[in-house]
Amino acid sequence: MVAASNAMVQQTGQGPMQPLSAVSVQAAFEPHQFFYPVPWRAHSYHAGATLTKHHGNGTDFAGYASLLACPDPKRIDIRASVRTQPQQWLVRTYLERAAIHVYAIVDVSSSLFFQGPSAQDLQQRLTRFVASLAWSVTRQGDGFGMHAASDHLPGSLQRLPSFQPGTAQQVHGLLNDYWQQARSLGADHGHTASALPAAIEVIGPRRALVFLISDFFWPESLLQATMRAAQPHDVVPVVLRDASAFEALPAFGWARLRDMETGQERSWLLRRKLRTQIAADAAQQKQSLNLGLVKAGARSPLWLAPDWRAEDVSRHLMETMA
Question: Is there a contact between 148 and 155 (Cβ–Cβ < 8 Å)?
Answer without folding.
Answer: no
